[in-house]
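Subgroup meeting minutes
Present: P.N., E.W., G.H.
Scribe: E.W.

1. P.N. recapped why we're keeping a running log of single-chain structure predictions: easier to compare across weeks, and new members can see raw inputs and outputs side by side.
2. G.H. added today's entry (183 aa).
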Amino acid sequence: ETSGALLVAKNATEHAELSRQFEEREVEKRYLAIVHGAVDGDAGTCDHPVGPSRTSQIRLKGACIADGQACRTDWRALECVGAFSLLECELFTGRQHQIRVHLAGLGHPIVGDKLYGEDEMIFQRAADDELTDEDREHLLLDRQALHHHHLAFTSPATGERVVVESPLPKELRAFLEEQAVAE
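Output recorded in log:
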């Protein structure tokens, strides 16, 4: 459900070089996330290790756990609108669901997140195509409000730095505007 920039290699040689850049943390990855609640402060870092949740019924779910894999997400508040905040999150590692796990762990789950919101069973009902009207009302959006808006890497073909930016999608901007009107 995450929208935004996507990087695709044209061939195996370029794929290998791009993979190296990801592994060496040479690729810049920034996401926009609309989260529940007003965050404390203008910016912060979450560096809690992430691993499989030991309490979830959903095997796919991750959690901040002491013996998890090291990871780091920096966040910066861009807007606070009503009961929601728009954050820019920069990844320094690339663990599965890292931003979602970190933000939920900070008490600010992403709007529309079926797995890391208050009721993880919404995820299961969605997978079974059994979402209820109550589930949809609880989620507020049909998708998670996470968008990959900035990607920078070195082109394997030219050696030049490439920066790709993708603006916040209309439906996410409309959600923020609706919250501002409701204030």
